[in-house]
Write a structure and sequence with these properties.
With about 160 residues, this protein is mainly alpha-helical. The chain has 2 domains: about 10-80, Leucine-rich Repeat Variant, CATH 1.25.10; about 80-160, Alpha Horseshoe (Leucine-rich Repeat Variant), CATH 1.25.10.10. It contains 11 helices and no strands. The protein has helices at about 10-15, 25-30, 35-50, 55-60, 65-80, 85-90, 95-110, 115-120, 125-140, 145-150, 155-160. The protein is elongated, with a radius of gyration of 18 Å. The model is unreliable at about 1-20 (pLDDT under 50).
Amino acid sequence: MERPERTEPDDRTYVAHTGGGTDMDALIKALRHTNLGIRWRAALALGDIGEPAIKVLVRMLIESDHDIRWLAGSVLGRIGEPAIPHLIRVLSDPDYDTRWHASRILTGIGEPAIKPLIAALRNEDGDIQWRSAQALANIGEPAVNALILALKDPVWWVRA
C-alpha cells in the first residue's frame, strides 16, 4: 500500500500509523520530537498497537526525559492487563524512578494487577516485595485480602 505524502511535522505520526502495518521505529523517533503534541500522538499510536509495543514502552520508562517516561507510563496503563508481567519485572530495576513508575502504572491498572502483585510478594527481592505491597495498598479495597497476607510477611519492609 502506498503511503500518503504529507509534509507537515504534526503529520509524522499519521504517516507512521497508516497503511498495512505500523512503523514502530518512526513512532519511537516521534517520541523524541521537540513538539509535545507529536510525542503524545506517537505514544497514543503505540498504545493502539497494544501488546506488540509493550516492550518498547517498558524500555522507555528508563529514559532521562521525564515527559517520555510519563507518556510511556500513561500508554502502558492504557494497554492494561497485557503489560502487567512486564511491569512486575520492572519493579526490580536498579533505577528508583523506573521502579516508582512501574508501581504507579500497576496501581492504575487496578484489580487485574492484584494476582500478579500477590505473586510478586513472594519474590526473593525485598524491594520487589515492598513495591508490590505498596502498589496493592494504593489499589485499595479490592486488594485488602492481599494486604492482610503482606502483614504476615517475615520481611519487615513488606509489612510496613
